[in-house]
Amino acid sequence: MEKFQSLQAGQYWRATSAIPQKGITLDSVLLLQSIKWVDDTAHTIVMRAHPSKFGTREEIEIPQPDGSTRSTYVSHGTHEFLLKDFLLQFEYEPDADRIRAEETARIHSSMQQLQSELMEAQSNPGMSTELYPRPYRSRCCYRSYPTVVSLHRRRCSS
Questions:
Q1: Measured between alpha carbons, how far is 153 from 133 in angstroms, rounded to an integer?
Q2: Is the dihedral of CA 34, 37, 41, 43 positive or negative?
Q3: Is the model's pTM score more than 0.85?
Q4: Are 112 and 85 in contact, with CB atoms under 8 Å apart?
Q5: Are 24 and 79 in contact (CB under 8 A)?
Q6: 127 — pLDDT class (breaks 50, 70, 90)
Q7: 12 bridge partner residues
């Protein structure tokens, strides 16, 4: 009952196990977006997908009891859980702000590294051979890889 009383929209909760049918990985920290009530009792918990996945669609493999896997698609927007299932699969995450700040810092670092590589590639055309394997330097590179266009405009023939 104590855990139930602390449920509030705006809190962050950590997945204590992978939930493959919803595309949620172990230790994902998700926002509790809302609570649906039935007869003045919390019934369904609505979690917002992780920001790195929100608004995307991905193919996932769901393990089956016989050991095989089944392939399906998941759209990442919100995930709904009955209260009982939610409490079994999530725990409150008090350090959500720190976790999001670390995730954001990793993304910014990755972006800076990519920007640095692109700047270097612009000043060193020979580097494009390392960045883009041979298949991407073909005549179709204009359509599929716009950054290749600027790097290989002189090399690619139409």
A1: 16
A2: negative
A3: no
A4: no
A5: yes
A6: low
A7: 31
